[in-house]
């Protein structure tokens, strides 16, 4: 009888602890500041709401702590924390001028907020916006068979996987532009944003493609797209883009988002600054361009732009032939070229 009572009390205690753990709400914010920096704010059990002045006090303190050792020779724009025109704006364009209502934010995921301080010279991109953990050894240990065209194919693989998931009434398009100064891959897939499940930051996490071992399953089916098992080279977007060029900008938008999220990858910064446990890179938010809206009427896309290619791209016709050879098992379109 005593053992039964003890067991009952233990079960009650476990249920009580689980209930308490479930009730703990943690809110995470990444605040993008007017001077091009960003800070992370973590709030545990903040209540139902918080006045913007109190929230900005936390942001200001974290900013001061984070950048206390900043090199003063590099000038940064002053932030007018006490401006009467100060407000926050979330990714949907909603302006917060007085109170942050936490019921409007899901706990445990990171939400982006832009701080406006009433001045005109706002930053367009932000330092340390995305936190990536790269495996930089892949950059120096690529096989000899991994060349310009296979790296480009890795990026096209990403786009093929993306457009495959589009609905039947949504445009499926992949556009590749190659010239001496810039290489661009644009697709009308579902896009990415700041949410955990669709984070653009995951694009920058280095590693092998999850689909490369399923190559054989892609053969057969209804053309032009077969089963969504691509990635035969398997090194992924970051490795491929850093192999091709020195600076990459990834811009992406989901249908639900009003803003385009973008992140920046620089090869030199990656190789020289990756000795720690994590690597942070810059990024930002912007409005979609007219040509982007025209190319994707349903409102979602991803664009990868690679600048300063390390080698002169091959002849476009030869490149088309090489890519056609690579994707012959996947693309079954007769007499339509690449």
TrEMBL record:
Domain of life according to the entry: Eukaryota
SUPFAM superfamilies in alphabetical order: ATPase domain of HSP90 chaperone/DNA topoisomerase II/histidine kinase
Protein name: Uncharacterized protein
Region of interest: Disordered: 279-304
InterPro entries on file: HATPase_C_sf
Pfam families assigned: HATPase_c_3 (PF13589)
Native source species: Papaver atlanticum
């Amino acid at each position: 009888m005593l053992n039964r009572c003890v067991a009952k009390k233990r079960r009650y205690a476990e249920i009580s602890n689980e209930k308490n753990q479930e009730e703990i709400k943690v809110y995470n914010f990444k605040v993008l500041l007017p001077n091009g920096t960003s800070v992370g704010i973590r709030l545990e059990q903040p209540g139902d709401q918080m006045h913007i002045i109190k929230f900005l006090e936390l942001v200001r303190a974290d900013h001061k702590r984070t950048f206390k050792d900043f090199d003063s020779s590099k000038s940064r724009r002053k932030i007018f924390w006490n401006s009467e025109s100060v407000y926050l704006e979330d990714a949907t364009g909603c302006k917060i001028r007085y109170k942050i209502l936490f019921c409007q934010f899901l706990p445990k995921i990171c939400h982006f907020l832009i701080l406006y301080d009433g001045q005109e010279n706002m930053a367009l991109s932000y330092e340390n916006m995305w936190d990536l953990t790269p495996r930089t050894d892949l950059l120096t240990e690529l096989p000899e068979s991994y060349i310009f065209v296979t790296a480009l194919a890795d990026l096209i693989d990403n786009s093929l996987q993306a457009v495959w998931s589009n609905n039947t009434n949504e445009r499926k398009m992949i556009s590749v532009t190659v010239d001496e100064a810039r290489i661009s891959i644009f697709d009308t897939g579902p896009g990415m944003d700041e949410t955990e499940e669709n984070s653009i930051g995951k694009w920058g996490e280095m590693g092998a493609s999850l689909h490369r071992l399923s190559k054989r399953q892609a053969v057969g089916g209804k053309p032009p797209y077969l089963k969504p098992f691509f990635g035969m080279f398997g090194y992924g977007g970051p490795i491929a883009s850093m192999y091709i060029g020195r600076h990459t900008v990834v811009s992406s938008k989901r249908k639900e988002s009003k803003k385009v999220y973008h992140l920046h990858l620089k090869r030199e910064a990656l190789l020289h600054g990756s000795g720690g446990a994590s690597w942070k890179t810059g990024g930002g938010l912007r409005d979609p361009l007219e040509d982007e809206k025209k190319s994707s009427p349903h409102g979602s896309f991803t664009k990868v732009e690679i600048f300063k290619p390390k080698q002169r791209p091959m002849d476009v016709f030869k490149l088309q032939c090489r890519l056609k050879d690579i994707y012959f098992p996947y693309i079954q379109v007769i007499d339509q070229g690449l």
